[in-house]
Every structure is written in structure tokens, then in C-alpha cells.
Design goal:
Length: 317
């Protein structure tokens, strides 16, 4: 039987990927996660169906034995967040760059067939042209963006130098159930949803007219699995976005409509390293990987809102 390894599999996106791999049922699933930002509870009801290892990807010896002989390694382990990488750059540098290097090295040594690497839309920076196409020159604006870009370059070089099949997917602002709203470094949608459920005013950094291609987690998971199977994509890079573009002000308005409340946001100065506008050109992913995003922003928001409502109710009990 095939074996799949998901690094960062106890995280928000990783645990959704693990669930989908189990649903597809054609292989065993091993999860590697140091539980720094990941959580066991993200895997609660599937815990008995996976092999879980609380291991850090910087520990080559520990990961090498777990990656050996795997069919596909989905490398999602990372310390996310642009502001976190600015305020505390050492851990994110070590995990996102050194850790990625160790994963790739262990995959070569262990004869892994393919690695799918979770890259980031932040690599594009503030290049004025929209939508962002993979052929554009990257312009990282933060340590996080640079680290994720370095991972892509490493992935490509491991294909050209060592023949390891790698595919990089630039995830565009992924949101959905299990995204933790409780940290200041959390994704903005999870923070907004918690605020609206608690009837609090959110803080918007800048004028709120910055925009993002918010992508629902299940669409990203589908594409990630497609990237693990598609022919003739080794060494390549694809945008993993929805193709849409919404400002923060639009999102907050939409949430107020959905919940039937009126709450004026607090506006604060823009965050350093922040990108102004982001939208993916998904032509290449549609062509080569049969990418087909299914979730509109409104549908994704409703689903995520319901998940947060249930989680809040459960913790209040
Ligand atoms: C960036 C990347 C994304 C990556 C993520 C990892 C870009 C375009 N996207 O997301 O691909 O997955 O890092 O963490 O670079 N904001 C508020 N109020 C809040 C929180 C955030 O106004 O309480 C604003 C931010 O200033 C920013 C926007 O919301 O303008 C989105 O922020 P966030 O969700 O943290 O993601 P990015 O930094 O865009």
C-alpha cells in the first residue's frame, strides 16, 4: 500500500489534507508535526487512522526514517505569518528554510516519488500587475515571503540536481474551518469571523481597501492532491488561488450582512511588509492540474462561520 506523509499535518490546511487522503482511502497517512502551531485536536476524530509523529522538520535523523519509501510527501510544515516573521525572524527562518531543506534532502535519500511543497502568494510582493502570473519576477517584501520563495527554489533545484520530483503551489490566503482565530498572527478571515460572532469591532490595518484572493481550504486541498498525481509537472510552480479578489472592507460588509449586525471597524496603521493587492491567475493550474475551484467566497465564509459558531458554543459549555 502507498504511504503518504504530510508535514504540518496537524495544522489548519494540513489536517484538511489528511482528512481528504483518508477519504480517498488508497494509502496510509503519516503525519509529522512539532505541534508548535498545529494541534492534536485538529486530528481528533481521525487520530486512530493515522500514524502521528511529534517531530520537528529541522531534525534530519528523525524525519529521514519517517520519509523513507513514501510515495508522496506533502510538505506543509511552516511557521506562517508575515508579521510574525518580521517580529521574530529566527524561528521562521530556521523552520521555513532549513526545515524545508532537510525535508527535501531526506526525500532524496529515502527514494520518495514526489514532493508537493506549500509555497506562498507572498512571493509576488507588490508588483503592480494583476492577476499574478507564475512567470512574473518575484519581489518578496518580508522574511516570510523570502523564506517561502527560497523553499520553491530549493524544490526546483532538488529536481534539476537530484531528480526528486517536486511541485510547488503558491497558496493564496487560504481560509476555512480549523483556522485558529486566537493569535494576532492568524489569517484575517478567522479573526473577522470570531469578531462578528462576539459582536466586537475588528481592527483593520490600513484603509481596508487592500485586497486578497481568499481561497477556501477544500479547493486548495483538491489542487494539492491533483499536483501529487499530474504527469509532466516535476520541477514546476503553480498558483493555488481562487482567481477572485475582495477587499477587507468588502469582507467585513458581507459578514455584517450575513449576521445582520452593524459594527464599524477600528482602522489602524498599515502593517509593515503588507502587500496591497493580490489575485491569482489560475490558467496554468487549470491547464496542467485540472484545477477547478468550487467554493465562492460567500459559501466558504458561511461554512467557516458555522464551524466557528459550533467551536465557540462547545468551548462555552
Ligand atoms: C500572507 C500571504 C499568504 C500566506 C500568509 C501566511 C500575501 C498576499 N499573502 O497573507 O499567501 O498564506 O501570509 O500567513 O502575502 N489584517 C487586518 N486585521 C487583522 C489581521 C490582518 O486588517 O486583524 C490585514 C493585514 O494587514 C493584511 C490582510 O488583512 O492586509 C491579510 O492579512 P493575513 O490574513 O495575515 O494574510 P497576508 O499577510 O495577506
Amino acid at each position: 500500500m502507498k504511504r503518504y506523509v504530510v508535514t504540518g499535518g496537524a495544522g489548519f490546511i494540513g489536517s484538511a489534507l489528511v482528512r481528504r487522503l483518508l477519504e480517498e482511502g488508497d494509502g496510509q497517512v503519516t503525519v509529522i508535526d512539532n505541534l508548535l502551531t498545529g494541534k492534536r485536536e485538529n486530528l481528533a476524530e481521525i487520530w486512530d487512522r493515522i500514524a502521528f509523529h511529534a517531530v520537528d522538520i529541522r531534525d534530519y535523523d528523525a524525519i529521514a526514517s519517517l520519509l523513507r519509501g513514501a510515495d508522496t510527501v506533502f510538505h506543509l510544515a511552516a511557521i506562517p505569518s508575515v508579521p510574525r516573521s518580521i517580529e521574530d525572524p529566527v524561528p521562521s527562518h530556521e523552520v521555513n528554510i532549513d526545515g524545508t531543506f532537510q525535508v527535501l534532502r531526506a526525500c532524496v535519500a529515502g527514494g520518495v516519488r514526489r514532493v508537493v511543497y506549500a509555497a506562498s502568494s507572498s512571493a509576488y510582493g507588490d508588483t503592480p500587475v494583476l492577476p499574478k502570473v507564475e512567470t512574473m519576477a518575484p519581489q518578496p517584501l518580508s522574511p516570510y515571503a523570502l523564506q517561502k520563495l527560497t523553499g520553491e527554489y530549493y524544490a526546483r533545484v532538488f529536481y534539476s540536481c537530484y531528480g526528486l520530483e517536486t511541485v510547488s503551489l503558491r497558496y493564496f490566503n487560504v481560509y476555512g474551518p480549523r483556522q485558529d482565530p486566537s493569535s494576532p498572527y492568524s489569517g484575517v478571515i478567522s479573526i473577522f469571523l470570531r469578531a462578528i460572532l462576539e459582536r466586537r469591532r475588528p481592527t483593520i490595518f490600513g484603509d481596508g481597501e487592500q485586497s486578497r484572493d481568499f481561497t477556501y481550504v477544500e479547493d486548495v486541498v483538491s489542487l494539492t492532491i491533483k499536483a501529487s498525481r499530474a504527469p509532466n509537472v516535476a520541477g514546476k510552480l503553480y498558483n493555488a488561488g481562487n482567481g477572485g479578489q475582495y477587499t477587507l472592507n468588502q469582507i467585513w460588509r458581507l459578514l455584517q450582512q450575513i449576521e445582520g449586525v452593524s459594527l464599524e471597524p477600528n482602522y489602524a496603521p498599515p502593517r509593515p511588509g503588507d502587500v496591497r493587492h493580490s489575485r491569482a491567475d489560475i490558467t496554468a493550474a487549470v491547464r496542467d492540474l485540472s484545477h477547478a475551484p468550487r467554493f465562492s467566497l460567500e459559501e466558504g465564509l458561511r461554512r467557516t462561520l458555522e464551524w466557528q459558531r459550533r467551536t465557540l458554543a462547545a468551548t462555552a459549555r
